[in-house]
């Protein structure tokens, strides 16, 4: 079994296949040649339908990619993950976010502890919703990275399941411009602060928590213990900070995989215990699909293989995510951490430098907004960037009467835009087609052939479309778990550790060294640029 995909026999076969058929593959020709292409290349997973047919793949490519997965022992690696083997080798830890969503009595690792922790966290959340901590109207969640992005993204996505009289705020940045405007609108007596930090050592979170506590006391707040709660795997540090109520979790929950743990407390406060359990159930359904579906129909595996095909054979360096649902507008930011912090690695598990590319840049914006910003580049730029569209069939506007009618019409417009973009990316437009068109806004004086070249599109630009029936706690849970497993699959194929993040350490250490210099102005021993900038920033 090859540890890394580039050392497996299938790798060389894929290279030969790419040179012969992959490089010049044209999706339009593939559709013309195969009337059953959509049916053959679309897949069902729990809560998620995936159309992969607009990608530069066909049956022979998929067969070789699946061989690659088998050569790399992807099933054994997956089973080791799910079993709780210490797959995070550099930290000597298991990686068991899947255990957090396994139902009671399922036999999953740590099931009894997980259920007890979940029950306690949900009981607390329901208590806050009921008024056990007084009439709480605002919850300020203070955390960063994995202790922010997941909960913030989910609370926004499930806004329709929230309560208008209970507002959730997320503060992450050490920049006081994040915290200050949030506090400005609050009544200390009706505010609950949740301080979320796995390590409880993170500079940004501790600074914001300290400032929030100072503000609370200055507002006449007397009962810190009642208005501050922590979620952390370092409950001792939370207690030292002065927080009595702390929900703990385990080192086998990675920060970017932690929304399913007590870090999900703001989600549970926002939507309630029942919906939080539905979120877990959706993720668990995807876990089961990942664990048991044959690789040929295993959606996280297929998406991971497609990522390797594009990154390592086509050489595409980024992927754009376009969720056509306003509630999912933070999904790209969430996925940036999930994918780039997990798979942005340069050495394999044995510490050998990799000679193949790893994590692409993941970026995006909610549709249709992105269309009016950077889609120009996706359609006509010199780089090919695979796009992932996410469409939601049924909206949940919570509107009635005439407004509901109008918004239903807007939803059709939204879906038409989503379909049109992937169609346009694939279809393109030749110069001849552009020449034949009437373009009333175009120059009347420029040479018509030149103008047609400006107005043509290369097409054959790949995209995947994921479809949810509705954006519900369950479907969202399944969607997030799909992405988690896909990131695992690519990381496992590349033979890297997807579960550490040593790359963030150097900047943190240098920040700690620079901090006193920002007060003293001392630049001795610094490089010329840093010294010059520091002088500029501290000058009177
Ligand atoms: O700096 C990166 C990181 O360690 C992330 O992996 C993590 O999600 C984030 O910081 C926050 O860490 P913590 O939850 O310990 O405050």
UniProtKB/TrEMBL annotation:
It is an enzyme of class 5 (isomerase). It catalyses: alpha-D-glucose 6-phosphate = beta-D-fructose 6-phosphate. The keyword Coiled coil does not apply. The keyword Isomerase applies. One of its GO terms (molecular function) is glucose-6-phosphate isomerase activity. Keywords: Cytoplasm, Gluconeogenesis, Glycolysis, Isomerase. CDD domains: SIS_PGI_1, SIS_PGI_2. Pathway: Carbohydrate degradation; glycolysis; D-glyceraldehyde 3-phosphate and glycerone phosphate from D-glucose: step 2/4; Carbohydrate biosynthesis; gluconeogenesis. It comes from Pelomonas caseinilytica. Catalyzes the reversible isomerization of glucose-6-phosphate to fructose-6-phosphate. The gene is pgi. The active site is at 341 (proton donor), 372, 508. This is Glucose-6-phosphate isomerase. It holds the Pfam family PGI. It is found in: Cytoplasm. PANTHER family: GLUCOSE-6-PHOSPHATE ISOMERASE. Belongs to the GPI family. It comes from the Bacteria.
């Amino acid at each position: 079994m090859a540890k890394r995909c580039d050392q497996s026999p299938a790798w060389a076969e894929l290279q030969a296949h790419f040179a012969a058929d992959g490089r010049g593959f044209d999706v339009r020709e593939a559709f013309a040649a195969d009337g059953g292409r959509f049916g053959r290349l679309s897949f069902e997973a729990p809560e998620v339908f995936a159309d992969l047919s607009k990608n530069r793949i066909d049956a022979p490519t998929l067969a070789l990619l699946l061989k690659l997965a088998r050569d790399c022992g992807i099933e054994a690696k997956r089973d080791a993950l799910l079993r709780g083997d210490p797959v995070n080798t550099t930290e000597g830890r298991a990686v068991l976010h899947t255990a957090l969503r396994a139902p009671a009595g399922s036999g999953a690792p740590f099931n009894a502890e997980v259920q007890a922790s979940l029950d306690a966290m949900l009981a607390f959340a329901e208590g806050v919703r009921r008024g056990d901590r007084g009439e709480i109207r605002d919850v300020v969640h203070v955390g960063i990275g994995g202790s922010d992005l997941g909960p913030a993204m989910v609370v926004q996505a499930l806004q329709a399941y929230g309560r208008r009289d209970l507002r959730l705020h997320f503060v992450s940045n050490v920049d006081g411009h994040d915290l200050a405007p949030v506090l400005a609108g609050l009544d200390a007596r009706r505010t609950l602060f949740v301080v979320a930090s796995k390590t409880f050592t993170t500079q940004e979170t501790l600074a914001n928590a300290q400032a929030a506590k100072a503000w609370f006391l200055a507002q006449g707040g007397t009962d810190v213990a009642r208005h501050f709660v922590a979620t952390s795997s370092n409950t001792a540090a939370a207690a030292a900070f002065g927080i009595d109520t702390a929900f703990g979790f385990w080192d086998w929950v990675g920060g970017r995989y932690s929304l399913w743990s007590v870090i999900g407390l703001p989600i549970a406060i926002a939507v309630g215990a029942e919906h939080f359990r539905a979120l877990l159930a959706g993720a668990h359904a995807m876990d089961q699909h990942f664990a048991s579906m044959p690789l040929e129909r295993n959606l996280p595996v297929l998406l991971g293989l497609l990522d390797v095909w594009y990154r390592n054979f086509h050489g595409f360096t980024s992927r754009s995510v376009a969720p056509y649902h306003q509630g999912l507008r933070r999904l790209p930011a969430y996925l940036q951490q999930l994918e780039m912090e997990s798979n942005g690695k340069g050495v394999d598990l044995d510490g050998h430098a990799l000679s193949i590319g790893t994590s692409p840049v993941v970026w995006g914006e909610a549709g249709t907004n992105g269309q009016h910003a950077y889609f120009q580049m996706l359609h006509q730029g010199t780089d090919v960037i695979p796009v992932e569209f996410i469409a939601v069939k049924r909206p949940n506007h919570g509107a009635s009467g005439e407004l509901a009618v109008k918004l239903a019409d807007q939803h059709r417009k939204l879906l038409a835009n989503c379909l049109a973009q992937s169609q346009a990316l694939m279809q393109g437009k030749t110069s001849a087609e552009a020449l034949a068109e009437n373009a009333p806004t175009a120059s009347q004086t420029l040479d018509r052939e030149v103008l047609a070249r400006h107005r043509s599109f290369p097409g054959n630009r790949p995209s995947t479309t994921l479809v949810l029936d509705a954006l519900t706690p369950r479907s969202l849970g399944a969607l997030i778990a799909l992405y988690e497993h896909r990131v695992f699959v690519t990381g496992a194929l590349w033979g890297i550790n997807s579960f550490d993040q040593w790359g963030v350490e150097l900047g943190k250490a240098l920040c700690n060294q620079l901090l006193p210099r920002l007060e003293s102005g001392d630049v001795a021993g610094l490089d010329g640029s840093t010294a010059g900038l520091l002088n500029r920033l501290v000058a009177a």
